[in-house]
Design a protein that fits this description.
single chain, alpha/beta, Stationary-phase Survival Protein Sure Homolog, Chain: A, nine-stranded mixed beta sheet, 6 helices, 13 strands, about 25% strand, globular
Length: about 250
């Protein structure tokens, strides 16, 4: 299988590098195109409209891209690599991509773009543990061992989002989950400078999951289970597909 591997953490991320090595060891041809630096939080941004992008070769079938995660997928699909991908894997991301964080994630956006091109696409993330290490090897083993099962759950018009608990022994299993609603208790300080500019300093707060629903991705990973969510890529509300719902009074 020809697999495109990308992320938003950058080409040197251990999650991407270890996954590429393991997939190649399974006999897959892995094309790696990833941003040349950390691009976390860029969502579905593109930069190719502003001019040419640069691919810097970093080894066999491996390139660092001057653009963003979605740019990497577009380049591969439009023929910028030796072969077109059959599958898009984005990650393994450093940290979770749970619930409404999918709206901000460049890792999720790369998988979304793959699905928009009609390719089976999966975003993979390793949930962070405050003050703890990332157990990349366990996450890679789990991802490969369940890859066929994961792909069996993909359908056109969606991408799959897998969050893997960060534990030395690996997850206890994998469960289908729906994305949670997450809100951050962030704060901001402002300073007015002598030059007339106002400087805004943001402080990340704790995450609230509202509500903590049974079966959501946050609930599933709290049980040391990997959470697999199927996410629609089409932005139109489902109820508007019903003609009756489009008649307003």
């Amino acid at each position: 299988m020809n697999i495109l591997l990308t992320n938003d953490d950058g080409l040197e991320s251990p999650g991407l590098q270890l996954l590429a090595k393991a997939l190649r060891g399974e006999g897959h041809r892995v094309i790696v195109i990833a941003p040349d630096r950390d691009r976390s939080g860029v969502s579905h941004s593109i930069s190719f409209l502003g001019g040419p992008l640069v691919l810097n070769p970093r080894g066999d079938d491996t390139w660092a891209c001057s653009g963003l995660p979605v740019d990497c997928v577009v380049i591969a699909f439009l023929g910028g690599t030796p072969v077109k991908p059959d599958l898009v894997l984005s990650g393994i991301n450093r940290g979770a991509n749970l619930g409404t964080d999918l709206l901000y994630s460049g890792t999720a956006a790369a998988a979304r773009q793959g699905s928009l091109f009609g390719l089976p696409s999966v975003a993979l993330s390793l949930v962070e543990v405050p003050g703890g290490d990332y157990h990349w090897e366990g996450a890679v083993r789990f991802s490969l061992s369940r890859l066929d099962e994961i792909l069996g759950r993909w359908k056109a018009g969606t991408f799959l989002n897998l969050n893997i608990p960060n534990s030395p022994q690996g997850p206890g299993g994998m469960v289908a989950a729906f994305p949670s609603y997450r809100r951050y208790n962030d704060s901001m300080e402002m300073m007015d400078a002598p030059n007339g500019n106002r400087y805004c300093f943001f402080h990340a707060g704790e995450v609230e999951t509202i509500p903590p629903e049974e079966g959501c991705d946050q609930d599933i990973i709290s049980q040391n289970l990997a959470a697999l969510s199927s996410v629609w890529v089409h932005p139109v509300s489902a109820d508007l597909r019903d003609p009756a719902a489009r008649i307003w009074t």
